[in-house]
What does this fold into?
Amino acid sequence: MSYASCHYNYVNINQNQKEDLHRFETSIIDNYKYYKRVENRSRIRIVLTILIISFGVYGIYKSRDNKIVIETLNNIPLMISVIVFLFYRIKSYYKNLFKCRNYLKNLNKTLKEFNLYLDRTQTL
It folds into this structure.
């Protein structure tokens, strides 16, 4: 028998339970790292997309009297498709960001409630 320690007491567990607990612990760590990476990538992509949009609007504003810019802005189907594309791109990045944040928040809450870890010092 081995022991897994909780906050206040020790619980006897057999070898199979210990292996399951260890697999659970490693899967939680792997999931946390994966979702943290996805969250960071989503944040970076959102910022870069907004930055590109800002530079585009600034460039259009600066050259608003240019004939090519006026013809491009008057092309309604092109403008609608560009706006829809950017909208769905930002929406998907926000969806990934909030999904990861909610998952990480719930994972942290669960681990705080069930503060259970393997105690490697007390093996029999």
